[in-house]
Amino acid sequence: MQVFKAYFKVMRGSAISLAISLSVFMGLAVLFSFIAPKTAISSFEPTKIPVAVINRDGDSELAQGLVDYLAGTGRLVSYPDDEEKLQDALFYRKVEYIAIIPPGFSDAFMSGEDCAIRKVIVPDSTSSFYVDMNIDKFLNTVRLHRLYSGEKEEAQLVAAAMADLAVDTPVTVRSFGRLPSSHGPYSYYYAYCAYALLAMIMTGVSSIMIAFNEKDLYMRNLCAPLPKRSMRLQLAAGHGVFALGCWGILVLGSFILHGKSLLSSGLTGLYALNTLAFAVVCAGIGFLVGSSVKSYGAQAGAMNVIALGMSFLGGVFVPQTVMSKSVLVVAKFLPSYWFIRANDAISELSRFTGDSLRPIYGSILIQLGFAIAIFSVTLLLSKERRVSYL
Amino acid sequence: MFMHVFGYRLKCLVRDKETVFWTLLFPLLLATFFYFAFGHLTVELEGFNPVKTVVVDNEAYRGNAAFRQVLESLSKEGKNQILELTLADENEAERLLEKGDVAGIITVCDEIGLTVKQSGINQSILKAILDQYTHTAETVTGIVAKNPGAVRQLIRDLENRKSHTEQVSFSDAVPDTMLAYFYALIAMACMYSAFWGLRNTIDVQADLSAQGARRSVAPTHKLQMVLADAVAALVVSFAEVLILLAYLAFVLGISFGNQLGYVLLTCLAGCIAGVSFGNFIGTVIRGSEAAKIGILIGASMIMSFLAGLMWVDVKDIIAGKAPVLSYINPAALISDAFYSLYVFDTHRRFVINIGMLCLISAVMCMASFMRLRRERYASI
Known about the structure:
The complex is a heterodimer of chains A (390) and B (380). Chain A folds into two domains: 2-40 and 181-389, no CATH class; 50-165, abc type-2 transporter like fold. In chain A, 69% of the residues lie in helices and 5% in strands. Chain A is built from 15 helices and five strands. In chain A, strands 2-1-3-4 form a four-stranded mixed β-sheet, covered by helices on one side. Chain A starts with a helix and ends with a helix. The model of chain A has no long low-confidence stretch (mean pLDDT 87). Chain B has 380 residues and is of the alpha/beta class. Chain B has two domains: 2-42 and 180-372, no CATH class; 49-159, D-Maltodextrin-Binding Protein, domain 2 (3-Layer(aba) Sandwich). Chain B has helices spanning 2-14, 17-38, 41-46, 59-63, 65-74, 90-99, 121-146, 151-159, 179-192, 194-202, 210-216, 222-251, 260-284, 289-306, 313-321, 323-328, 330-343, 348-372; strands spanning 51-56, 83-88, 104-108, 112-116, 165-167. In chain B, strands 2-1-3-4 form a four-stranded mixed β-sheet. In chain B, a hairpin with a 3-residue loop joins β3 (104-108) and β4. Chain B is elongated, with a radius of gyration of 31 Å. Chain B starts with a helix and ends in an 8-residue tail after the last helix. The model of chain B has no long low-confidence stretch (mean pLDDT 90). At the A-B interface, α4, β4, α6, α7 and β5 of A face α2, α3, α6, β4 and α7 of B. β4 (117-121) of chain A pairs parallel with β5 of chain B.
């Protein structure tokens, strides 16, 4: 048991960096659980695009009517008529559409002249298209009334248009089996777990390996009376217990943050299983890094590059659905890709049937395949080093 | 003598592989990861694509020629295509919706209805299209009731609906939020120049390194030595940031506007701030080298976080809620300088940023100078 005990003594040296990784992750997890979209819808809510309306046409009925209509179909955000502030707001998407009603617009519109609402938008965006539709719908309706109803009073025309536009198409929300609570906040939590697992398990396992592979210590251990097999087994047990510990803490964290909603979703087991498979992969990578690098400086470099690289390319920080196809093709060679794929499939699961579960188990098995491959390569490398030392 | 010290210092710094990794390769790798993860995010996430929809192919739909014509014209391939329409029976439509292949099911019965799985912008567009159909019918009925004579002209007019919006822009810049991540990344790289500044102060203080002890007894004037070191650090870090900038601009195609001179000025001011920050930590804060490095990494990460490196909105939130913080954070000033150059046609905000950056650098240099000058050791 000496090696097993020594394992955790050495681990104490990495305690601070492990604690930092864990607390940064937990901080982010709490932050994101607040900003993650609340789901579990039961009725349809039309998307409210944030719109800034700059009314330079004064208090005319038409301009006011348009502002009121946009306030109903979108979310009006009030901004002063200040270019710099408006540009800031559009760049950071505080507003997605800036509609400027030019001076004299109402008079021109009522007398049938060519005139238009000026818009500053994110070019070709869906949201601007949607707001365009609403503006055109309102103004076209007013135009039809003006041309053909015989009414000339601006206020009456606006009122008639508003009455026409009040009619609503009935929308049914169809839930298939489970309530459509897909991509609940815990789904984001488990996705981010990938980074935390990579950072923690890789740091821990590789630090131990660097310590035990230090040349003099390694050679002394080789001539110790303890059978090499037993030493390796104890080290492996240490890695296993450590990885399980990290995994356990993260799963526990998910209960603390999202206990009720997570348990009621019935998906806890699948999420835990998926993260466990990824924890094994992380241990493998840590094992490989620890056996290949010699200094703690190089370890820190390798750690950051691998953890950030796998997280960015695998879709941990940015959903796979919005990543470009060509990046995803390359990402298939990373275990984090399969972890996120399984994670996404779990959150979208609407019923527990063989057909819908198969891709999840498939992705988990692929991760385990990666783990086996990484362990094998490492063992091969360490055998070579053993020979080169002697 | 200055050139001699400068030349050797330059060699010393360039050969420090570990610091070269963190100050040059790490930002390059991070830029690559950023690019692959969200280089196209704005287009993918916000760009408009025709909405995939299924219509239940039943008697009522086939019988409603007007509605069918509207849907067909909206799904005509080309620039103005709004819908990608599929016809299917009820079961198949449900299956497509469950799989997420379509945003919604349009059903024509007594009235026109929409079935969706979730709320979202595509579903909202679908609803807006159906609403528009109903609204137009409502308008026509209302007008015809008042003025039956207008019916023919009215129907003809419906076909040439007009667009009442005209796109203008405040400047030529496309408001792509993702650019802010790359600007924050350059800010981080500039702040990492602090590693070089820190290394200089370690190598010049007799109580921190053997090299510092040796240099303290050398006959070279200390101010000359410190200046030569600082210039060497600045040259190395500026070269690194230029490599990063060239990589971002020419390999990844990140836009910085078209004011190259000002962009380079921002990089230089950023590197000066970074090196001064390293000098500041190395001299003013007492402690071991490891502790100083820890403080440096922690501080530059916090600054970069507040400048929007991890979550781009943070910079805007800070600017709105605690503007003082964005005026004293060098990383935020650097990324905001890039942002101002890209977005605005005027230089008011850019000048404020660079001015503040120079002021902060001057204060930090002054503090380190006060700490370093006339330092005497009882025993080294």
